Amino acid sequence: MDEEENSVNRPAKKRKKTKNRQTKVEVKFDENERTEFLTGFRKRRNQRKEKAKQDNERLLKEARARIKRKAKEEKKKKLEEIMESFDKISKENKDGLSQFETEKQVFEDDSTTVTVAAIELTT
Q1: Per-residue CA distances from 123 to 1, 63, 91, 95, 120 (Å)
Q2: Model pTM?
Q3: pLDDT 10s per residue in the chain (123 long)?
Q4: I need a surface site. Which of 1, 43, 105, 123 has the fewest CB within 10 A?
Q5: Rounded Cα–Cα distance for residues 61 and 59 (Å)
């Protein structure tokens, strides 16, 4: 009777499942790749730093070019305004620009004569 009680109180043995060998993946271990991974942290960190440095240099170069371009456009616009006012004043005064000249120099050579006049312009 003791044996019957023990068999009743014992949990039923589970049947082992059969292994599905068709879908198993074989893992291959390569010592060289492991070593490269473990020793490559510094190398990868330096690569990230170098890439960030190059990106920053590129952005700085683009910003400089943009600032230069903007300054050039502003100078061009200012020069156009000055030239417009100069043309307007010269058209109003038929006698020429003699009233605006502050200094006049004449340079002569054998075949050429050059006159340089300094003109005061205000905008």
Answers
A1: 122, 31, 17, 21, 10
A2: 0.45
A3: 455 555 556 667 778 877 777 777 777 888 998 898 889 999 999 999 999 999 999 999 999 999 999 999 999 999 999 888 878 877 776 555 555 556 777 888 888 888 877 777 665
A4: 1
A5: 5
